[in-house]
Structure formats: structure tokens, C-alpha cells
Amino acid sequence: MIKLIAIDMDGTLLNKKKHIDKAQKEAIHEAIEAGIKIVLCTGRPLYGILPFYEELGLHELDLEGYVILNNGCSIHRTHDWELIDSVKMTADDINYLYKFSEGKDDINFTLVDEKHYFNIGKEPTDELVMDAKFVFADITDITLEVAKSGKYNIVKAMYLGNPEKMKEFHSKYENILKENYSEVLSQPYVYEVLPKGNNKGTGLKTLAEKLGIKQEEIMAIGDGNNDLEMFEYANYSVAMGNATELATKAAKYSTDTNENDGVAKAIRKFALNK
């Protein structure tokens, strides 16, 4: 019996216009009414999910709700948005990661905490402006020294730029960065770097153990390369019809696309047995 469903957002719950279709909302409500806990599990930061959480009406339906954010690097309780679990990048991490962006005017180096979307040292690329808009954030310019000061709880770093540039950047530095960090090209224009050993799978495991929910009672729905570890952990892993090749291969099951009610169909088929 499925007791928890972890749902990715971009490319999964959200359609191409970054909206939640009616069928997804109805299926999520049906699942909650059936006693299943719904957990948004996303690469987005807190400020990037708040309007959607409100739109889904989850506050009213689940008084003890949780969200897994920043690709597993932070977990929030939703009734007061208290941070209950988080990792942190050190000053040395930030200094080291910044150096990979030096001399590359067309690639931004950004940092994320629970309230800010920081940009260090360069004019924002079109991709950075677009990404900040997607997560409802203002871009906050910050110096490297302030970023390293410890004033902010930085949970992850990101490199952003033109997809072709990011493909080259990822190919060049992937093997170097993965030695000391978790990393993923989460979108064609976003390369994310996280503290070592952290991902959606570890975030899901941490929350499930807190809630006393067994691995075999968990379902995960996603579409991207940052969903692979979540698929590996969940007993019921479901790839969207629009999923990447790696995500499709990693999942046990598949559903329709995010443009054709894939989340709703997966919930009703695998969790509600309809």
C-alpha cells in the first residue's frame, strides 16, 4: 500500500506554461482523502514553491505536510514553513566552486538559501533572468566575500547559461566536481552542485524515516536527471512521458506527459488502483 507520493514539479506536476492543470489537483486531493501523504520533491527553493502549494490547497488538506526542496538539500514543515533539515556549503566550497566560472562571461555563478537567489560578480544572463522568474525570485547581487562570510545558509550552487555552453561546461567539469560534490545538469541551462551525498533520494529517505513510512510504501513521480536517486529509493518509481532518457530508464513504471495529465494518471493507476 502506498502511503507517500513524492512529486517533482517542473516537467512533472507543472505543464509547459508552469501551471498545474485541474486533473492533477483533483487526483492529489483524492490521494490525500485516501490517507496518502503528498510531498512536493523539487529542485526549487522555498520561495519557488509557495504559490503552487497554496494553489493546490494542501494547507487545508494536510495539517502535517512537508516539502523536500533544493534537490534534497532542505526539508520544510509546511504549517509554519520551519526548516527541519538542511545542509550547508562552507566558505571553502563557495570559493572553490566560484573559480570554475571565472573568465566565463556567459555563465553565471549563483547561490541559493531559503530566502535569496544570489548572483556573484557578473551581469545576469538571459537564462538566469528566466530561471529567477520561474521561481518567483528577485536576483540579489552579492560579493564573493559576503557569500563566504557565513551570514547566509547556502544550500547549493548553480551555474547558468546558454544550453550549448552549459553542455560544454558540464562535460568539461563533471568528473572533477563529482569527486567532492553531488552534481546534476537539472535543466539544459542549469548545472547544480550540492554538498556531497545529497540528492532527492537522500531527502526522501530522511523524511520517510522521520514519518515512519517504509521504502516499499513510497511512490515517486518525476521527469528529470535530478530524479534518478529519488527513483532508486522509492519502491514505485514513475517516469513522465516527457522524461529524459536517463529518468525513463531508471523508473520501474511510466505515465503520460505533463501536458496530458501524467501525474493524475499515475496517482490513480498505482496509488488509488483506479
TrEMBL record:
InterPro entries: Cof, HAD-like_sf, HAD-SF_hydro_IIB, HAD_sf. One of its GO terms (molecular function) is magnesium ion binding. Keywords: Hydrolase. One of its GO terms (cellular component) is cytosol. This is Cof family hydrolase.
